[in-house]
Write a structure and sequence with these properties.
The protein has helices spanning about 40-45, 45-55, 75-85, 100-110, 190-205, 215-235, 240-260, 265-275, 280-295, 300-310, 315-325, 345-355, 370-380, and strands spanning about 10-15, 30-35, 60-70, 90-95, 140, 155-160, 160-165, 175-180. By secondary structure, the protein is α/β, with parallel strands linked by helices. It has a 6-stranded parallel sheet, with helices on both faces. It has a two-stranded antiparallel sheet with strand order 6-7. Strand 4, helix 4 and strand 5 (about 140) form a beta-alpha-beta unit. The protein starts with 10 loop residues before the first strand and ends with a helix.
């Protein structure tokens, strides 16, 4: 067995009703920047009001930054950091799905550091400079189950056509609250897209060449829970037991990302999102998944057998196909989102140039021609 490191410094509060802990837990500051998307859901469901009231009960004031879009951008991060400075916030809360929590992590860096966020990002045109000052403390409150960002250090931010994941020890949330009751109103398609993002985090981290005995435990349990309960959560969003299983699977996949790594499937999906921000990340992963996992199937038989067993099937590719059909996402087409076949070479190049590091974690190495073939085989 190779030596390994296991480091997840986030304090996790998991389960129905855990949002209430925000009113009594020791907070890392006295004024919070609450980061949400520009959409209506956090206000219309009353979740934002609950958070602000719980903070006030805990003697913490709040300022709300609500200019985050799906696929948050460098410009939104920089504007959020300036807002945090003006409002004299001393910690950051990401409230919602992956986008506001990812943005909150990046804002936490830039509210305490000079220059531009891309000065610190590694990959693409990022300058990979050392971050001189500690980031503001981060609290993550997730209302979706897909990205695992509530328990890992990674933040995916878009700059032009570059969609890059970046993080470090200081961007692990100090506190994470995962309350499945906050997920009961998610629509079916979003539930499916988010759930498959978690599924692929787990499967990729299990296949990665840096996987550890502990990360494998997280991965296989996540796959098991998603195959058991994601179709139920898609069919009946108010099934709290199913929502709880999916939420736990998501958090476990985030733990896997903290102790192993995603691989080239995510590089390709991020490149698709960089060119077409209208394509949900989970949808991009679904659309390339069958071709990507088929490339791996005969090359990593031991790992595929273990994934199939976790999925409750004899064949992992069959389990993947069944899960997509059961969740109603098996007919997704790139062309329905405005993609053309002519773009695939540029998207492939972007994957290697902006997030080429994830190709290094592939257990079975692929080259540019093979990754382009995966995109071409996936195009419909």
């Amino acid at each position: 067995m190779k030596p390994f490191v296991n480091h997840i410094p986030t304090r996790l509060y998991f389960g129905a009703g855990q949002l209430g802990m925000l009113g009594t837990l020791p907070m890392p500051g006295k004024r919070a920047l609450v980061v949400i998307t520009s959409g209506k859901s956090m206000r219309s469901t009353g979740t934002l009001d609950r958070v602000i009231k719980l903070l006030a009960h805990n003697h913490v004031s709040a300022a709300v930054y609500d200019n985050v879009q799906p696929n948050p951008t460098r410009e939104q991060v920089m504007a959020g950091a300036e807002f945090a400075k003006r409002e004299q916030c001393d910690f950051v809360i990401g409230l919602g799905g992956g986008s506001p929590i990812d943005a909150a992590k990046a804002i936490a860096i830039m509210a305490a550091n000079p220059g531009d966020y891309w000065d610190y990002v590694s990959g693409g045109t990022g300058r990979a400079q050392p971050i001189p000052n500690p980031a503001l403390p981060i609290i993550a409150i997730t209302t979706t189950a897909g990205t695992g960002t509530e328990i890992d250090p990674w933040s995916v931010i878009t700059n032009g056509n570059e969609k890059i994941g970046f993080g470090c020890d200081m961007t692990f949330p100090k506190i994470s609250i995962v309350d499945p009751e906050l997920m009961l109103t998610l629509p079916p398609q979003l539930t499916a897209f988010q759930g498959f993002d978690a599924f692929f985090h787990a499967a990729e981290c299990f296949l990665a060449n840096c996987a550890t005995p502990i990360s494998n435990l997280y991965c296989l349990k996540s796959v098991e829970l998603l195959c058991k309960s994601l179709p139920r959560a898609v069919r009946d969003g108010e099934d709290l037991a199913a929502r709880t299983d999916v939420a736990l699977a998501n958090t476990l996949s985030g733990m896997a990302e903290s102790t192993s790594s995603c691989t080239s499937e995510h590089s390709l999906a991020h490149a698709i999102g960089g060119f077409h921000p209208n394509i949900p990340h989970g949808a991009a992963l679904i659309m390339i998944s069958k071709a990507w996992f088929k490339f791996y199937a005969l090359r990593a038989p031991k790992q595929f057998a273990a994934l199939a067993k976790a999925a409750g099937q004899s064949d992992f590719l069959g389990a993947l196909d069944k899960l997509q059909r059961d969740c109603g996402v098996d007919e997704l087409k790139m062309s329905d989102y405005g993609m053309t076949r002519d773009e695939l070479p540029a998207i492939n190049d972007n994957a290697w140039e902006t997030m080429g590091g994830l190709f290094e974690f592939d257990r079975v190495k692929m080259d540019r021609e093979e990754s382009l073939s995966i995109l071409e085989d996936s195009f419909r």
